[in-house]
Amino acid sequence: QLVFDFNDTEVLYPKDKTVVDLFEEQVSKTPNNIAVIFNETKLTYRELDEQSNQLAAYLIENYAIESNDLVGIKLERSERMIVSIFGILKSGAAYVPIDVSYPQERIDYIAKDGNLKLCIDENEFEKFSSNQNTYAKTPIQLSNLNSLAYCIYTSGSTGKPKGVLNDHAGLYNRLLWMQSYLKIDDKQNFLQKTPYTFDVSVWELILPFITGSALVVANPEGHKDVAYLEEIIDREQVTIIHFVPSMLGAFLENGKKGTGSSLLHIVCSGEELPVLTAQDCKEKFHNASLHNLYGPTEAAIDVTAIDLSEVDVIKYGVSIGKPIANTKIYIVNNALELQPFGVPGELLISGIQVARGYVNLPELTKDRFIADPFREDYNVYRTGDVAKWQSDGSIAYLGRIDNQVKIRGNRIELG
């Protein structure tokens, strides 16, 4: 039961496509739909497609980009950031987000460690823009399911950040699962407010464009400002939004009454969701469903989920839900044997979303990404999280094995 029933998650998705192919299909269905809204700037699906095709052509011609190359992006949140991400993916490369506020030392470290072919910053984008019309607008699509899609550098335990290599197959699975889980159609407005160096941003940045929805891009520091968030949610009629629980708490505490009536789905992840925050959210936004998701950067964003709309959280607490499509969760003891119901153990993740490993850290990769003890041909990721199975097949999160804590969704190791 612990291996099969609770992990009966198989869903067949087409095997010959990536998120870039799904985006191209959406462009042909809804070329004139608005894709991106950033303040006064709007891009249609056709415009986003053509501009990102031109950028892909520019990258290939000027930097000889090949499949699995890593390309940095160092841009503030804006429509340029979106064009850059899609341009990189179309060129066959994977994108590596770099915060503009990072100290130069960290930027240099990531560039060297990841062997970045280039970094698209404002100067590079200007260079592209000034010659943009010399590049063809025709579709370019050089990635496949086995290609790398993105590499996010997480806070390292030694003070050195470590890059996590995620491929297209895992991302594709995660986004198609979410599209069907939330029943997303082309009438939705997503808000992009998560800093793109945090992996939640990946679904915010790409999922809208495989569904025909619009992506409303928040101002660069807007994610910290409750009044601004309320204003943009109401002005742009945002329907799908993500919060780390601490920010959701601040949003509920400091928000005005009667705002946010357009919201249909509020998604939480990145930290433990307190019972009272969940209860407050359900009371304030009674038209919206509240979802609690769990997953590390090492497994394509999220691997478990629960819709808390129908759950009495005061009575039953907040679980992290059940495994998502094509994902298996094992809870094991130190000998990698399954723990019985209700007995805590380390949470292991198996399935298509498990990352390739870390950049230039073969020993750590070997330690954290091991052969699946229960299935051939799969790897599992050892999360270092403690959890237990509950009788309904959902999972209770109990904390870390080590002494890492999460602050606003980022894992920080205590020295």
- Biggest sheet, spatial arrangement of strands: 10-11-12-13-14
Q: Approximately what portion of the residues adopt beta-strand conformation?
A: 15-25%
As residue ranges, the low-confidence spans are none
| Gyration radius, in Å | 21 Å
Q: Counting H and I runs of at least 4 residues, what is the number of helices?
A: 12
Helix content: 25-40%
CATH architecture of the domain at 19-143: 3-Layer(aba) Sandwich
Give the termini separation.
39 Å
Category from helices, strands and their pairing = alpha/beta
CATH class of the domain at 19-143: Alpha Beta
Do you know the CATH topology of the domain at 19-143?
Rossmann fold
Give the averaged pLDDT, no decimals: 95
Topology:
Elements: H1 19-29, E1 34-38, E2 41-44, H2 45-63, E3 70-73, H3 79-90, E4 94-97, H4 104-113, E5 119-120, H5 122-130, E6 148-154, E7 162-167, H6 168-181, E8 189-192, H7 200-206, E9 214-217, H8 226-235, E10 240-243, H9 245-254, E11 265-268, H10 275-284, E12 289-294, E13 304-307, H11 313-316, E14 322-323, E15 327-332, E16 345-351, E17 357-358, H12 362-368, E18 369-371, E19 379-389, E20 395-400, E21 404-407, E22 410-413
Parallel strand pairs: 1-9, 3-4, 3-5, 8-9, 10-11, 11-12
Antiparallel strand pairs: 1-2, 6-7, 7-17, 12-13, 13-14, 15-16, 16-19, 18-19, 19-20, 21-22
